[in-house]
Amino acid sequence: MLQKSPMYAYIPAQDVDRARQFYEQKLGFKPKEDVAGGVVYECGGGTSCFLYPTPNAGTSQASQAFWQVENIEREVAELKARGVVFEDYDMPGKDKNGIVNEGGAKAAWFKDTEGNIMAVIQGV
Question: Residue 60 is part of which domain span?
Fold first, then answer.
């Protein structure tokens, strides 16, 4: 039943204004609407995410969300050019750009201004 329904990501932020600058200036997101002190961003495939205020932002040690991309090398290069800093995890299959190719997918991770771990993923 739930698997047939759309699923959306929550992105916690201690400082919504600071986080908005990151998502809008560094990632190029365009806000859809302001809601309850936060902001909704539309993403591809009819999905969206909600950036919302909470003191608990950045407390997860796991990935908060990921974007499925067609060309991870291009996406990583473009994000780096915009000032996004990628994490340098010691993992097998990592190339010189920090992209890990392991387990049927390529992946690279970065943190937003709130300490949330985000990823870009490409199936191989």
Answer: 2-123
